[in-house]
Amino acid sequence: MAQGSYVEPSFTRDTNYIPDRITRDARDGWPVEPGRYRLIAARACPWASRAIIVRRLLGLEDAISMGLAGPTHDANSWTFDLDPGGLDPVLQIPRLKDAYDGRFPDYPRGITVPAIVDVPTGGVVTNDFAPMITDLATQWTEHFRDGAPDLYPEPLRAEMEEVMRRVYTEVNNGVYRCGFAGSQEAYDEAYGRLFTALDWLEERLAGQRYLMGDAITMADVNLFTTLVRFDPVYHGHFKCNRGKLIELPALWGYARDLFQTPGFGDTVDFTQIKQHYYVVHRDINPTGIVPMGPDLSNWMTPHGRESLGGKAFGDGTAPGEIAVAERVPSADNPVLGPDGLLLT
């Protein structure tokens, strides 16, 4: 499997995504229509994990089906090697690139997840991960489960956008700037920016349970997908090693609080996360050896965040038990029951 090259003199993410949006008014030609679209994700990818979590929290499983690519990919495409025969069972394709090429022949940019595919035509609709989850939270409301939380509350949106922008540029993207830095100068700058932002988050979360106050929002989803990968991957593999997440009391408690909340930890696959980063990034880890550690059982230890008040789902309720077909199979993972408690 030929791997791509990731290290750059100074890493800059290519954000030239397919901008189409699925909306009630179908302004881009894509109407909200249950059963029409398929979310293609990978549990290994933090950007795709956002969409997986939001879909589950809102109860959109019946409205939007989901296909999962395997944790490793070559330089050209994510592949459906987890499925029988190596084909996505709905789209009947072996590589996500086939859906991109199905709409844009010889698609010239990176084949990324998450992607939403139009099932009738087999062509990709969008891979723009940020507006994708905003639209799931605002355009599909008629198809939410009973008790779905408001992940994008209108009174908080202006402040949320500021918080999410800083989290994205300094933390979500910041770990990649460290890991893919091709010079000492670029790494040093990236390292400083990352830990400045983590210190800001540590202070913010010391006095409130969630990023925006007393209930979870999309801002928490966006931060969680980086925090859950921090000690298993970013601390060592990406050299984000001033300290581990477990050494930041507020952030570590916050991350465990979310992990133990239905819809978060029950979508995390630590095995696939480690396989993806350590196997795919051969220019950082030439041997492809996947580390055994760290010990992940500590994700289920008491976090004490209840003392800050608030309720995860606000006036709503937790999602029900995860569908059997979508349960995380990895032996590495602490296993959560439908009540969010550890199963033994």
TrEMBL record:
Entry-linked PROSITE patterns: GST_CTER
Residues annotated as site: Lowers pKa of active site Cys: Y234, Y277
Domain GST C-terminal intervals: 153-277
Annotated residues for binding of glutathione: W78
GO cellular component, one term: cytoplasm
Active-site residue list: C45, Y176
InterPro entries, sorted: Glutathione-S-Trfase_C-like, Glutathione-S-Trfase_C_sf, Glutathione_S-Trfase, Glutathione_S-Trfase_N, GST_Omega-like_C, GST_Omega/GSH, Thioredoxin-like_sf
The name this protein goes by in its record: Glutathione S-transferase family protein
GO molecular function, one term: glutathione transferase activity
